[in-house]
Each structure stands twice: as structure tokens, then as C-alpha cells.
Amino acid sequence: MTTSPFRSIRRARPGWVAILLLAVWLAPAVAPAPAGAAPYAALVMDARTGQVLHARSADRRLHPASLTKMMTLYMAIEAVKQGRLGLDQRVRVSSAAAKQPPSKIGLLAGQRVTVRHLMRAAAVKSANDAATALAEATVGGSVRDWARAANAKALALGMSSTSFRNPHGLTQSGHLSTARDMAVLSRRLFFDHPEYWSLFSRERTVAMGRTLRTTNRRFLGSYRGADGIKTGYTRAAGFNLAASAQRGDQHVIAVMFGGRSSAQRTQQMAKLMDMGFARSPRVAARIRPGPVATQLARAPLPEQRPQAPDTLLGRVAKAVTPSAAASTRVSTATRRAPRRSELPVSRPGKAVAESLTVAVEFPASRP
Fold first, then answer.
1. Is 346 a catalytic residue?
2. How far apart are CA 168 and CA 232, in angstroms?
3. Distances (CA, A) of 118 to 86, 122, 226, 241
4. Could you tell me if 84 and 134 are in contact, meaning their C-beta atoms sit under 8 angstroms apart?
5. What one-character-per-residue DSSP string does 234-265 give?
6. Distance (Å, rounded) from C-alpha 127 to C-alpha 102?
7. What is the pTM of this model?
8. What's the angle, vertex CA 36, arms to CA 270 and CA 251, rounded to 5?
9. What is the DSSP letter of 176?
């Protein structure tokens, strides 16, 4: 005769029953968190048009980890192009930068390092000390100053769900972003600063006399057409990745948060990329991101030229000046992003920045 388990529980001592029920109730709370506990989110985008091809929890605010450094580099590149920084300018490393935990390249307080080498170390090695020193040089102030400027820049770029607290991405309260916003930033880097794109596609680089290997070598070395862009990892974030790949005329950008390991992140990104190439059209017109209108109001106004006197010559000058300005606007507006057909066919995704010379003007030397 089979005894019902419920009858056995009823016959047990009341004290033991209470202990058993309490253990069952507490079990979920005390069970160890699984290795892949960081929340997963992803977004896949046609980089040519900005069209979203796949999204999962893409607007959930999560820890971006070192994907943060994409904004650090975006702002530093912008400062170089505006003349506020020079690639070969030596900047002083602060004690705050030198004290940053790994990943790092071992900068010392008071040391002077070129902006070029700080960029390389931050992009390729994902060095936290280099990212901090670069951010401080970009704004001419502290990390807090950089965070204020970065949050304003994020809003200007359309990254409405991002709030930065530091330039390296180490976990900090309020330092959050989304898969969607990081995809927007990745696309902005490609279109706004194509001459610096090679920073994110190099498998190795040289900085301060040392050869640095990229943290993104798994993806760059395994996925056909891969050409960037940035990894990230903290315990709170999991294994994050913003990635770009080009095949023929197609160009896909994908971002994922919350990978369980470096290998699983690479495998999952390959699936996302395959989905993107399958869902995007073979040919599509490139649509550049809109202008960073918000930042224009923050930029200092150029000095006004003295007005020509109200003479015949002055009236001629007034008539000619608007035409010249209009010509300048048309010239600027017609600048386009590089087409994939202009890229070399021998090594897809390996020498993207070098091949963009047909469409953009490079800095005096390689960043």
C-alpha cells in the first residue's frame, strides 16, 4: 500500500514541518547566482540606414562596462579635429588616472604621454588609466567635468537613455546605457570620424614602445568581414560587445550586453551578425546620421568680420558673401560616407580606415 507524501507530512512533528517549509521558502534567496546572471540585451542595425533589424531588451538601462570608452574616444577625436588637442601633444597623467584598476598599461602620476598613444591604449587594450588620462585632457579638467560633457554629448547624439559617470566604464551607481544607445554611438563613430575607425579594427598596436593586443581579437579574427568595434566586461555587466562587419555593400552593427563568457559572447555576436546580414537588403543608400545640432549652440561663436563700409565696394561684398557661404554649405552637405565598394577586396574588414582616403581627409599621421 502506497503512503501519500502529504499524509507523511501531516504525521511529522510540527517543528520539523515548519523547518522544512522555511527551507523551501528561503532556497531561491540563498542559492548562488548563475555565472551568466548579468541581464541580456541586444540590438542589430543596418549601419547604412540606421534601420533596426532585431532588438531584445534594447532599451533596458544596463552597465555598459568598457563600451563607455567609445564615448571617451569620440570626444577625444572631436577635440583633435577641432584643434583643442593634438595627436602628438603630451599630456600629464594625473594621480587619479594612475590609480585606476586593471585593465591598465601602468601609467605613472606625473608621466607625460601623447594623445595618440592614450587613444591607442584606450581603444585597443581597453586601458582604464589611459582612458581616464585621455578624458581629463579632452575637457581640461576632472572626471566629473568629463562626465558632464559626455552626458551633454550623449543627448546631442540621440543617446537618450545613457548617463555617464566615468570615462572607463567600471561599475558605478548611475553609470548606465542601453544596447540601442551604444549602437547609435558605434554608427556615429563610423560616420562622424571614419578616418579614426582603424583604432577599433586593429588586432594590435604600439603605444609607448609596447605592443598591445586588442581585447576584441576573438571577434575580429573569426567573423568574416569584421572591422570593429569594442568589448566590455565587468561582473555587473557581463561580457558586452559592440561589433561591426561589412560584406559587399552590406554593413551591419550589433550590440549585446550580458554575455556569459568571452567565447559565448563571440558565438552570440556571430548569430546576431548573421541575422543582420540575412535581414538587410543587398543594396541600400547610405543615410548619414543627422547633425549634432545641440552642440552647435555650445560652441563658441566665430569672430565677426568687420562690416564693409556702405560704399559701392561694400555693397558688392555684401552681395558676394552669402553666395560664398551657400557654396560652403553645399560642399559640406554633399560629403558622403565611404561606400563599401571603395574598400579593398583582398582583406575584408582588415584595412578599412586606410581605404577610406578616397572619401575623407586623414590627419597628418595615423592615429
1. no
2. 10
3. 12, 6, 24, 21
4. no
5. ETTTEEEEEEEEEETTEEEEEEEEEESSHHHH
6. 7
7. 0.73
8. 20
9. B
Q: Indicate if 198 belongs to the active site.
A: no
> Could you give the 3-state DSSP secondary structure of residue 75?
helix
Place of cell 594621480: 95
- DSSP secondary structure letter of residue 216: T
Per-residue pLDDT of the chain (367 residues; tens, 9 = 90+): 444 444 444 444 545 444 444 343 433 333 333 544 799 999 999 999 999 999 999 999 999 999 999 999 999 999 999 999 999 999 999 999 999 999 999 999 999 999 999 999 999 999 999 999 999 999 999 999 999 999 999 999 999 999 999 999 999 999 999 999 999 999 999 999 999 999 999 999 999 999 999 999 999 999 999 999 999 999 999 999 999 999 999 999 999 999 999 999 999 999 999 999 999 999 999 999 988 744 333 333 333 333 333 444 444 444 434 333 343 333 333 333 333 333 333 333 333 333 333 333 345 456 8
Query: By the 8 A CB rule, do 105 and 123 touch?
Result: no
Closest by Cα among 145, 151, 137 to 185? 151
Query: What whole-number distance in Å separates Cα of residue 59 and Cα of residue 46?
Result: 18
Instruction: State the amino acid at position 178 in one-letter form.
Output: T
Catalytic-residue membership of 69: yes
b/e sequence 234-272, b meaning 16+ C-beta within 10 Å: bebbbbbbbbbbbbeebbbbbbbbbbbebeebbebbbeb
Q: How far apart are CA 217 and CA 129, in angstroms?
A: 21
The single residue of 94, 126, 177, 244 carrying the catalytic annotation is 126
Would you tell me how many other CB atoms lie within 10 Å of the CB of residue 87? 18
